[in-house]
Amino acid sequence: MATYAIGDIQGCHDELQRLLDHIHFDPCNDSLWIVGDLVNRGPDSLGVLRFIKGLGDRASTVLGNHDLHTLAVANGHLKYHRNDNIDDILHAEDRDELTHWLRHQPLLHHDAKLDFTMIHAGLPPQWDLSTAQSCAKEVETILQSDAHVEFLDRMYGNKPNQWHENLKSWDRLRFITNCFSRLRYCDADGKLALEEKGTPGTQAAKLMPWFTVPNRKSAPLRIVFGHWSTLGPVDSDKIYPIDTGCLWGDSLTALRLEDCKLFSIDCPQIKKF
After folding, report:
1. What's the pLDDT at 78?
2. How far apart (Å, rounded) are the C-alpha atoms in residues 66 and 263?
């Protein structure tokens, strides 16, 4: 019995199946954690959604930015972007069932027994586990209610860019959503720099990866996450980035949580953007 965290899949269904074969995944005994971005840009987002949903409680998933984007497009709030590849979902006979399931996935998953916390992107330095769980629940509650229609219309934007307890309404929900689904870099005060996407060392002065901020309150946690395919290896027994750029022709990675062993398969580049 093992638990495997899987990096960003982004519609690469065949590669996911090859990785599961490689690790000898047994759906009767093993479990999967999916770090978000199940869909979009790859060739078979519909197949990925149907497969992960079909695993039931053998799979735990958190939402990534591409998952939220897909929900926004499906709800008519955004035009179809030229790089999107979610037509298969939008025109599927089970579209409503799948998007309903996707909308009911969390932003954070924590397992005290395994001593791991899963998110898609990052946490601001002011949040400990309790605060992060509470903030995630705020967005999840809205997203899983009738208010999700307005939320998906208002979630976009880079402001506010710093956490304050007194943030309210859509500003508060937008900041929380940006942390969980988009954060890579911030400054020492936790001001988000959402436009920065490159390898560490290429960012603007005074910015740093979110997990290197001094006195970060989530530092005691072992965190597995995706979203950052250019990050590269991190020398830490607390931070486990596993987006290794499957979509871009690099690899798809699984982390076995019980012993932190990494497994990966090489992937052909799916599409040039």
Report:
1. 63
2. 24
Q: What confidence score (pLDDT) does residue 84 get?
A: 84
Residue 141 sits in a domain whose CATH number is 3.60.21.10
Provide the number of structural domains found in the chain. Answer: 1
Residues with pLDDT less than 50, the chain:
none
Element (H, E) at 266: strand 261-266
Residue 25's pLDDT is what?
98
Q: Confirm if 223 and 216 have CB atoms less than 8 A apart.
A: no
Residue whose C-alpha is closest to residue 244's, from 48, 7, 3, 6:
7
In-domain check, residue 20: yes
Q: What's the pLDDT at 76?
A: 81
* 135-165 as b/e: b if 16+ CB within 10 A: bbeebbebbeeeebeebbebbeeeeebebee
Residue-wise DSSP of 75-118: TTSSPPPTT---HHHHT-TTHHHHHHHHHTS-S-EEETTTTEEE
Beta strands 59-61 and 31-34 are: parallel
